[in-house]
Design goal:
CATH class: Mainly Alpha
Helix content: over 70%
Shape: flat
Number of helices: 14
Largest sheet: none
Number of strands: 0
CATH superfamily: MetI-like
Strand content: under 5%
Order of helices and strands: HHHHHHHHHHHHHH
């Protein structure tokens, strides 16, 4: 026997390295783990670490105006301070006053538009495109457009109302708490309706047309078709739409801050605006981090409650 042949025979008898997979199932499992590693790494870097860092800051006296005490551990002191802060509870009330109507009205209007545009024609395609434009427009740009429209001196809204005689003098929309809240709510609804319309339209187009044909054979009218077919079939889409819309309105900052800055007299100061003021104007990053963690907790509770409450619609 030659030496090379003997070496080749020994190499065939040598056991594989311990780290190499020994079966096809193991190789497939390792391949699957390799595919999810980038997603897990992205989640850890972009989600887990910021949340952990924010929670750590909320437990320390992270105040840039007092750098010598920045890393002083205060435990749950900031959370106790938030619970006793009247401005926090006022911001919660303002946030709910803004978020709940905007979410409900946006969904109702979006569903109505989706029902009207759920047809195949040139007009409906043009209508979908035009009604989708507000969603593509940046929120800050939309805020400046509404600021110009509702300006007390040269706004087009005051001009039209004066022309038709609905008002006798220009209205300073941002000088009163009620009108300021109405203004930022209008911007929120105008911006979110296209999203709710598109999601409900997608849900409507996924409903089999045979169900409506069978309902017509049974003599059902439009309302009965909507109540017994359309509404139950949109269950999953409705839950996702309301949850996403509620989360967007709950954390809305840019449009509100550009339009009113939280005024007048904190009348439109939502939790996001309050957090920004504490962090970037007062430099109380520890306190602001506690606000952020509480906002995250409220968002999670809202999501769970909505899903549990609406689960009966599609089970």
């Amino acid at each position: 026997m030659s030496v090379p042949a003997a070496a080749g025979g020994l190499s065939r008898l040598r056991p594989p390295a311990a780290w190499l997979p020994r079966s096809t199932a193991q190789r497939r499992r390792l391949f699957g783990y390799g595919l999810i590693v980038p997603a897990v790494a992205f989640t850890v870097v972009m989600v887990v670490y910021p949340i952990a860092r924010t929670f750590w800051m909320s437990l320390h006296n992270f105040n840039l105006s007092r750098p010598q005490r920045m890393y002083e551990f205060v435990g749950l002191g900031h959370y106790q301070q938030v619970a006793q802060d009247e401005h926090f509870w006022h911001s919660v009330a303002v946030t709910l006053t803004y978020s709940l109507p905007v979410t409900s009205i946006s969904y109702a209007v979006g569903l109505s538009l989706a029902l009207l545009l759920n047809k195949r024609s040139v007009g409906t395609r043009i209508g979908r495109t035009l009604l989708s434009l507000p969603w593509a427009l940046p929120g800050v740009v939309a805020a400046f457009i509404f600021l110009w429209m509702f300006d007390a001196s040269f706004g087009v809204v005051n001009y039209v109302l004066l022309w038709f005689g609905f008002i006798r003098a220009p209205v300073a929309w941002l000088s009163h708490s009620e009108t300021a809240m109405v203004l930022i709510s209008l911007v929120g609804i105008w911006k979110i309706v296209p999203f709710t319309m598109l999601t409900q339209l997608a849900g409507l187009q996924s409903i089999p047309p045979e169900l409506y044909q069978a309902a017509k054979v049974d003599g059902a009218n439009r309302w009965q078709e909507f109540r017994n077919i359309t509404w139950p079939a949109l269950g999953h889409v409705r839950v996702v739409t309301i949850v996403l819309t509620g989360l967007v309105t709950f954390r809305e900052f840019g449009q509100i801050y550009v339009i009113s800055g939280g005024g007048p007299d904190r009348a439109t100061e939502t939790l996001s605006v309050n957090l920004y003021v504490e962090a970037f104007q007062g430099f109380h990053f520890g306190y602001a981090s506690a606000l952020g963690m509480l906002m995250l907790l409220i968002s999670l509770i809202f999501t769970v409650l909505v899903v549990r409450f609406m689960r009966s619609d599609f089970h």
